[in-house]
Amino acid sequence: MKSINLSGSWNLKCKDKDIDISAVVPGSVYKALIDENIIEDPFYRDNEKEAYKYSEYDFIYKRSFVIDQELLAQEVVVLKCDGLDTLAEIKVNNKLIAETTNMHRTYEFHVKDVLVEGENEIEIIFSSPLKYIREKQKEARLWGVGDAVDGYSHIRKAHYMFGWDWGPQLPDMGIWREISIYSYSTAKFSDIYMTQIHHENKVTIDAKVAYEILKEDENLNIVVEVKEPNGTHKNYKKVVANSDESILIDIENPELWWPRGYGEQPLYEIEFSLFSGQTLLDKKDYKIGLRTITIKQEKDQYGESFEFNINGISIFAMGANYIPEDNILGRCDKEKTRKLIEDCIEANFNCIRVWGGGIYPEDYFFDLCDEYGLIVWQDLMYACSVYKVDDEFKEDCVKEAEDNVRRIRHHASLGLWCGNNEIESAWIDWGWNPKSKFKTDYVKLFEIALPEVVKKVDPNTFYWRSSPSSGGSFDDPSDDNRGDKHYWDVWHGLKPFEDFRKFYFRFASEFGFQSFPCLKTVETFTKEEDRNIFSYVMESHQKNGAANGKILYYLAQNYKYPKDFDALLYVSQLLQGEAMKYAVEHFRRNRGRCMGAIYWQLNDCWPVASWSSIDSLGTWKALHYFAKRFFNPVLASVEDTAESYKVYVTNDTLEKVQGTVDLTLRNNVKGVLLEKSIDVVLEPLSAQMITEIDITEFIKDNLDARNTYLHYTFKNNCKIISEGVILGEKAKHFELADPKVEAKVIDDKDKFIVKLKAENLAKYVELSIADQGRFEDNYFDLAPGVEKEVIISKNTLRKDFTLEELEEQLKIRSLVNSY
Ligand code: BMA
Question: Transmembrane stretches, by residue range (predicted)?
Fold first, then answer.
């Protein structure tokens, strides 16, 4: 096989405006306009509005390239476009090759006839997605979310590009993935699908290999090379007899792949090479993990279970929902994604849900999830909308699914395919006209056509029709006792945090709470005068209309009125952290009945107030630190009521864990009221109530409540594994004295260690340095007398610091400093 890559520098012209610049491919129009200073950064202030206008224009990408005689001499010559966004007309040497309409597809076109030896020219004309959907909307009115440009679901283009309740309206266009030409003769692989058959101490890989054979060749042979994680190589050779056949590969003493926290992530490299005699014709490489993975659903006293089962073990899925990492896709890269995935691992995730309104992620996203052990819940790219499913649209969707399912299916991390986000439930709960013919279209696409693709292309992976769902057919998709659940009454429904405890969902795949990004991040998109949450610029970076009001509403319930803008941002993050902690700890206390907590949402695609736990600059909000604690595999938590504190420990590891639960109930004025230390043995994969304290004995009146708090820890070999503080009263009315936090910093080779101690209870201690380094822990409570060490790894700092500089820059605040 011969090939040339057409990525690199192209010429970009606008059809409707005098723009003639160079553009990097893969990339996009907006990326090029920013790089060439034609538009200003669309993320700054309200620049989004100016940038948006450019999506009304058509753009032409053009470049020349040289084809040599050897490439052209092959029998078949293919132009391969991995991603064209979206309405593209492709011309080679001025001849029309094709018109494409789907950003998510990989397109291949035979181009031998139009190419010449030597210099050639390729031109790709992108027409405005806005003009297109406007016209289409006149033909058939489609609906979906109100924050996106009207009519966005007419086009197979990432929905979020048209705006969402956390995203700007920037419907970019361009060649967003690789583009290349390859050629071949004789034969090549047309498909390889591996099924794992797990036996005791052996895994057999049944590789179904299909070939495209252009001409009879009795010397065709295939070599499969297996490189085991321990470095052993094994070869399998075979003469190719049929265009479609099975190759069985036995792996003795297999090392199994596990999600993080349950074992290692060994990967086996499998390389398939197709030869004619000694001449290599084609090669395909895979890195696979040996594991079984499915969703286990079993009827029980509550309804029906819904849990990821890996190698026979049902796990509690912990993680968050992932959205695209930037609105301008050309700015994404593997290193950025690696950081994000490492941040997930750092916060004890074992699962991530790729939400359906974005893109099917790059291969490297899945490679990273394989390596680090994150199970991927992969939505197909449909969310919150109706679609007009005529034959043409359906065929396009089927091809899109085939391309992406085929590309992603071998990844160890792939946990399930899900048809869409919130569409089945929307038909039932959002007041959509039940008589609309688009409801039948829904069934055609998500309950017939797409599951057929998954069954055909990836029969080993579980298909779930929608999220949330109870299995489809509009059978109560939001049932609390079956399937997965999106719960939004806390936040959208303004219900108090306590309401989370009323429910025992089987698998919570969405629940969330908004916050503002930190001041440092706000400074990147505002001027001084914008720094008021109701300013025009701040509201331009808040896409959920009612949200600022909601943040203030919950703030009023929990905290004192913040003294300034920065304090408001800080307190908004505490609210968000507490809300999610409230939910997740409850779900984990009910481990077994509930088997998943995937909060909304992990990341942002631009600087904005949103439900994310990591902002668009990669800075952890308080929630991400909270998540690290509430997703700790061994978690101590307390279910508190006005009468009692029930102390639990949840063990989400495969080992028996021994340790002690230590409790100190203290009154600011009266001192220690109760001290208790309980030895515990925790069974693997269990949640256990350890003790219940009757607090009516200690909290007799409002004054007691406002002064009493419980500090609880779970210790293993005298080391604190998990801890927390429960206040006898809402934080706003609690008598917090000046905590007098003392900090001492030690320079220790590759890290700094901050040693902390408080004289009085310090609530939500925030450590910060101007350069936004990563702390091992943050926004934690510090009980008096307890010494705490927090590590800052030097490699997370954006510059080199001396001990003195760090000491000088280190800022510490806690809740008392917010008012
Ligand atoms: C869920 C998601 C998104 C949305 C989020 C916050 O429904 O599926 O569509 O951004 O809620 O409203």
Answer: none
Can you tell me which atom of ligand 1 is nearest the CA of 356?
Answer: 8
Pocket test for ligand 1, best of 159, 160, 355 (most atoms within 8 A of CB): 355
* C-alpha 543 – ligand 1 centre gap (Å): 12
**pLDDT the model gives residue 772:** 73
- Closest residue CA from atom 1 of ligand 1: 510
Q: For residue range 335-348, what is the model confidence (pLDDT) as tens digits?
A: 999 999 999 999 99
> Is the minimum distance from the CB of 317 to ligand 1 under 6 angstroms?
no
Q: What is the spatial distance between Cα 470 and Cα 298, in angstroms, rounded to a whole number?
A: 12
Atom of ligand 1 nearest to the CA of 601: 5
Q: Is 166 in the pocket of ligand 1 (CB under 6 A)?
A: yes
* Residue 341 Cβ contacting ligand 1 at under 6 Å: no
Instruction: Tell me if 687 is assigned to some domain.
Output: no
CATH number at residue 39: 2.60.120.260
Residue where one domain finishes, among candidates 266, 288, 310: 288
Q: Which residues pair with 92 in a beta bridge?
A: 95, 122
Question: Quick check: 368 and 414 in contact, CB under 8 A?
Answer: no
Q: How far apart are CA 725 and CA 776, in angstroms?
A: 19
Three-state secondary structure of 642-681: CCEEEEEEEECCCCCEEEEEEEEEEECCCEEEEEEEEEEE
Nearest alpha-carbon partner for 554 in 512, 614, 513? 513
Regarding the beta carbon of 422 and ligand 1, being less than 6 Å apart is answered: yes
Distance between CA 379 and CA 357 in Å, rounded?
9
Domain that holds residue 276: 186-288
* Identity of the amino acid at 189: F
Asked if residue 255 and residue 220 are part of one domain, the reply reads yes
DSSP codes of every residue in 216-262? --TTEEEEEEEE-TTS-EEEEEEE--SSEEEEEEEEESPPBP--TTS
pTM of this prediction exceeds 0.85: yes
